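Please decode residue identities from the backbone states below.
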């Protein structure tokens, strides 16, 4: 297994050699917007461009889902890579040869699950391929492949192999080579008996490696080679690399044809995908034992505008169409459905004379998901000759559509549905729209947490006093607490913004770290102190702010290089994606404020420091007030103690007045 590590100092070289606009533009469509570029965010179901890419700063930020970072984090999140994998990928892309050093024992032990699983999967693919070519171990597998008429080229493209007919074929090789067994266990390739010995989980099967979009093996599917073995198909468990609800088999080979045709065709099995590719229909992928999910649609939306689902003519295929319609309603991709003739699957159809032409006809003539559902509804309505029965069928259909998300779908798709439903039910489009809106509102009300619909000042709590207080009488304490709570929320929000501004200004102007700032107030006296002694990382309000400020503080204290790009690269390589997002948010926020360099940064910095210092003083006053009040409730022993306590509370109130004072409403 890989026991070499890439030198740390090369990440800045790779980062500098990679243009973020070109990198992201290879995956999504970018449009110029001022000094930046805008696009639909590929990390959530974006309907309006909410991700911005800055060529000047070489960062990106989505203002909807929060995704952000640099070239490394984009590759890591888009392609689900670790930092070392992203670094290697971008280095190869930029033509940079990485210098490697031998990994220390600590580095070997510190490997993450994703890296361990990835390395184990890479080895397993080679092992299964080697066993397929073995004279004895691969004989049954080669016989099966021959019967299915799968070409050698396709076997190579899809990496198909064989697991041996033994309990410990792979396990023995792992032990003999001294490979790290952790990755093989995490990947579900081997298991451990009670006595601690290892055994193969996939035995005597034709092995179909499951690759991600860029061709890395993330899981395996095994088809039985012996009739009496069960189950027929055995798949890898879900891991840090593999989620079957979003993974599509064959995408690594189909991605380019899908992009070229803007259409993805989805079938139901491994051999169906291979048969289609072998026949030249290479924009074909398969789900892994699940119906089409929103996650699948989100993945395909990166490459295609339309998805065609190919179903067998059975009840299961008909039911799966319901899920396809749900994806159509809630996603931003067109979904169509084609049903093959009885007795046919894609593999058998392609082997017929003229099979490819027939296939193309089915794909071209596929019916959109909604029309498919409406056709089924018409059949059901035609089969019921009573008004009550038809009304019940129509009501059920509308309920199902609302549950699928029709109430929240886009205006154009919603209008298409309403028009078809109105024609089918003999109602006006306005009446159907009102019916859908009413049902959607009831569904939303049912899903809403209790208390949200109440009109109180504090999430459903009434401002009126409890039972027996008298109608119209306010409770001063409750209202005061509610308004004070709101005031405190505004203060906290303000100081959090100030913390972000301080960090952003320090990144842009390092000299501010050693400037003098004003402390104290008019009553206690104003004095100056150097900033690096005025606000320490532990004094930040937000946990994330404390962690990021610690990184900035340490670098500036030690005179290290500090820039947006170097900071993000260090954070990304350290696995701190949350802090990467925070850095990009702060940078973009300063740009939105129109803050450049020099005096603008200095002015914002000192104003933000004042807010933070003021908030710290308020907290000290509040802690003192609570302490004095606690002493009062405990009871003072002498009149002198009581007088001291009263004077202290009065002075504390004068220095830190309540944010609200509401008089009690008197009753006549």
């Amino acid at each position: 297994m890989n026991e070499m590590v890439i030198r740390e100092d090369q990440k800045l070289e790779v980062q500098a050699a990679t243009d973020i606009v070109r990198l992201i533009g290879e995956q999504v469509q970018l449009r110029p917007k001022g000094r930046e570029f805008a696009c639909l965010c590929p990390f959530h179901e974006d309907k309006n461009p909410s991700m911005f890419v800055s060529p000047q700063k070489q960062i990106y930020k989505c203002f909807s889902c929060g995704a952000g970072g640099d070239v490394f984090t984009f590759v890591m999140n888009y392609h689900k890579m670790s930092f070392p994998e992203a670094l290697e990928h971008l280095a190869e892309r930029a033509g940079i040869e990485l210098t490697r050093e031998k990994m220390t024992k600590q580095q070997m032990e510190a490997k993450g699950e994703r890296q361990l699983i990835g390395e184990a999967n890479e080895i397993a693919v080679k092992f299964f391929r080697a066993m397929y070519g073995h004279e004895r171990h691969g004989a049954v597998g080669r016989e099966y492949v021959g019967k299915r008429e799968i070409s050698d080229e396709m076997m190579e493209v899809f990496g198909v192999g064989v697991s041996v007919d033994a309990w410990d074929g792979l396990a023995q090789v792992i032990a003999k080579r001294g490979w790290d067994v952790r990755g093989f266990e995490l990947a579900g390739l081997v298991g451990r008996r009670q006595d601690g010995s290892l055994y193969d989980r996939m035995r005597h099967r034709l092995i179909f490696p499951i690759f991600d979009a860029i061709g890395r093996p993330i899981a395996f599917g095994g088809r039985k080679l012996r009739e009496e073995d069960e189950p027929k198909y055995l798949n890898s468990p879900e891991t840090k690399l593999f989620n079957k609800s979003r993974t599509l088999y064959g995408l690594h080979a189909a991605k380019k044809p899908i992009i070229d045709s803007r259409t993805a065709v989805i079938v139901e099995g491994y051999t169906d995908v291979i048969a289609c590719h072998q026949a030249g229909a290479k924009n074909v992928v398969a789900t892994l034992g699940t119906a089409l999910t929103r996650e699948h649609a989100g993945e395909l939306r990166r490459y295609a505008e339309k998805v065609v689902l190919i179903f067998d003519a059975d009840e299961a295929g008909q039911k799966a169409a319901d899920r396809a319609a749900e994806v159509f309603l809630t996603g931003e991709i067109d979904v169509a459905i084609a049903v093959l003739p009885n007795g046919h699957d894609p593999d058998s159809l392609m082997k017929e004379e003229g099979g490819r032409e027939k296939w193309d006809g089915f794909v071209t003539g596929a019916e959109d998901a909604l029309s498919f559902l409406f056709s089924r509804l018409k059949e059901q309505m035609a089969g019921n000759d009573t008004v009550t029965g038809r009304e019940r069928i129509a009501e059920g259909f509308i309920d199902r559509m609302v549950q699928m998300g029709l109430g929240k779908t886009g205006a154009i798709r919603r209008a298409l549905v309403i028009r078809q439903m109105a024609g089918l039910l003999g109602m006006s489009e306005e009446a159907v729209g009102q019916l859908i809106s009413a049902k959607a509102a009831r569904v939303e009300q049912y899903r809403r947490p209790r208390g949200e619909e109440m009109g109180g000042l504090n999430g459903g709590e009434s401002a009126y006093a409890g039972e027996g207080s008298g109608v119209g009488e306010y409770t001063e304490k409750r209202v005061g607490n509610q308004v004070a709570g709101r005031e405190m929320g505004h203060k906290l929000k303000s100081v959090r913004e100030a913390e972000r501004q301080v960090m952003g200004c320090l990144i842009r102007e390092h000299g501010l770290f050693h400037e003098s700032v004003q402390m104290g107030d008019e009553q206690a006296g104003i004095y100056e102190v150097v900033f690096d002694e005025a606000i320490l990382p532990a004094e930040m309000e937000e946990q994330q702010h404390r962690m990021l400020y610690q990184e900035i503080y340490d670098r500036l204290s030690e005179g290290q290089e500090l820039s947006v790009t170097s900071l993000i690269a260090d954070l990304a390589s350290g696995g701190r994606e949350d802090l990467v997002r925070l850095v990009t948010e702060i940078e973009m926020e300063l740009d939105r404020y129109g803050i450049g360099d020099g005096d603008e940064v200095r002015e914002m910095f000192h104003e933000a420091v004042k807010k933070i210092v003021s908030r710290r003083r308020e907290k000290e006053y509040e802690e003192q007030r609570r302490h004095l009040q606690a002493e009062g409730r405990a009871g003072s022993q002498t009149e002198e103690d009581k007088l001291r306590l009263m004077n202290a509370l009065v002075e504390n109130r004068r220095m830190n007045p309540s944010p609200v004072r509401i008089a009690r409403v008197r009753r006549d």
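Observation: The radius of gyration is 32 Å.
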